[in-house]
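Try it yourself: sequence plus zinc ion, in.
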Amino acid sequence: MSVERAKLVAEAGYRCGYCLAHQDYIPWVLEIEHLIPKAKGGSNDESNLWVACHTCNLFKSDQTHAHDPVSGRLVALFNPRQQIWKHHFYWSADGTLIIGRTACGRATVIALNLNNLIAVTVRRNWVKAGWHPPV
Ligand SMILES: [Zn+2]
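Structure, out:
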């Protein structure tokens, strides 16, 4: 692991910036993702990098904006470097679903498919094990 990668992952608390999956509970290495995708001119500067799990990174792809399902407005996706997760999302009472509190949060839940069936199934088991949701 390069120093830069180790620093970023530590700064992110060893969690995906979107679904908050912890490195200890996923069977693959957290990925360094470009907040503004390289395909859309995003740089490799640290300010444009954060940490995401493979699933979130895959679903995010080159998206930067998505439609809020409530207002229909096109809004910027959640930026885990600049924004605070709990301001935009919360966990369902059983800890398995990520629910958007804001237009940005709601759009990001859909765009990144944060409640995909596999993630929800895995979270259900994390809850049983007492690993989830994060506090
Ligand atoms: Zn994730």
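One thing you can check immediately is this: The pocket of zinc ion is lined by residues 16, 18-19, 21, 52-53, 55-56 (CB under 6 Å).
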